[in-house]
Amino acid sequence: MRQLVFAAVVVLSTVGHVAAQSPLTTEFEKYHVSIKVKQAEARKDQILDQKEHSEILEFQAIEVGKLFELALEEPTTELAFDVFCEVLGSESDKAEKAMALIAEKHLDQPHVKKLLLALGYDNTPSNQDLLRTVIQTNKYKDCQALATYSLGLLFKKNAKEAKGDDKDSHILAAEKHFNMVSEKYANVKLGEELLGKLAASQLMGLKMMDQLQVGKPVPEISGEDLDGKALKLSDFKGKVTLLSFWATWCQPCMALVPHEIALGERMKDRPFDLVGVNGDKLNDAVREKIVDKKITWRSFKNEQSGQAPLSDIWGIDGWPTIFVIDSEGVVRNIWTGSPSEKELDESIEELVKEAEKKD
Fold this sequence. Notes:
359 residues, alpha/beta, Glutaredoxin, 55% helix
């Protein structure tokens, strides 16, 4: 799981921090070039298969192990920090030591901001303490802002997994931190987005959390599809519906497409339908890819006019996110990430048979 949670750290990391060309600098640059080449070769068909993914992870684990030994010789540098983050993102037995070194030597430094968002998506118990330490000891406003926002994400994640009073307390804690971001750090940027806008979207997601649960009626979605035509989620009531939040930039989403196509063909003339929420910035290249991949089912635009993105309103934490909705409009299964084909098929088959009995 760590290699997924900390993937963003690799993207945010840069090379060449050390003025002198130290052995660590040289080897880190070579490592990143190698990773990019391997990923480019594996993605020529735009879908990374399991074998290719495993080979890259194995290469990554071996190489970051070598880098880690070099980083121990200069543990306080930003480049060493980047290596420690790489260790966290690999299948390495050195992850615990890497995190200890980050906690000891880097939480008050400006470059720690590259790690903070990843901590908000990894529900390791110690991460709350790490983020609080950043808020208390780091003098840089953007670091304080990101740590506060990430604490909100952690409490939100806890709320999704909790029940009763515990759930309520986590929701209140998440609201407190997102409101703090809105009040104190609204103009701090995360990439191209303002944290104030992101925090407002997270607050919307919190309000929807109680409704978006297995066993509860699915909320309505009303808007436009990718062709600009009116579409409502309730249009599909009476059929078992697979609702998928997907995008062409999302590799796991695209890897799921062939099975979704096969599922649609197998369920033809039965009470089943597939509908999406598409997270792309629509342009000719995206539309060509959709046609090329034979994605024929209708999808809502994620960004509808006059409202926050649907993924924010629904509190979507990862792409793809899959909802299976029964013929009465009740949510029966939710997956963040791709479910196994067997698990997905069995869930849908059972509900379709139930729907057929009602006809």
